[in-house]
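Section 3.1: Structural characterization of target chains.
Under the original work plan, the team committed to producing a structural model for every single-chain target entering the pipeline before any wet-lab resources were allocated. The record below documents one such target. The sequence was received from the expression subgroup and is listed exactly as submitted; it comprises 179 residues.
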Amino acid sequence: MIPKDTALLVIDIMNPFDFSHGETLAQHAKKIVGPINDLRNYCKKHGLPVIYINDHYELWKADLELIYDKCHNKTSSDIITPLRPDEDDFFLIKPKHSAFYGTALNTLLHHLSVKNIILTGIAGNICVLFTANDAYMREFGLFVPNNAIASVSEEDNHYALTMMKNVLKANIDDTGTLL
């Protein structure tokens, strides 16, 4: 069961997948759309905040429309369209891998009285893992559903989940068990 003082973070889901191995990552990301939407629906139903943190793609503006338009293409459409943030969701941009580095995330979480974070998104072995590390060091409780993060390789994703469970004390149960 998800505690009441929890926020859902959706990391880097607005993505054009137009880079080396982008097609592979997009194929893995398609598998996490349903689980992330299940978590979003649960959080909205229970009044828990949903926070998107995304790369800025050299736009340097926390403007969802600009970022969505820049990322929307044939490869990304099946991922970013169903996961597009709603008006009542928070949307932040980040300059580097961790959602905490150079952002207002920590302040926002404290303002919302959040003690636990559900981490979802891409890439599991990079931005999700770095965010999990920073959240752990800030003493947030961590949930990282194993079916709600994606990496280019399944091996890297599994390794990241193992690290988050063993080192960062994250609960890595799938969304079905978590909900």
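The radius of gyration is 15 Å.
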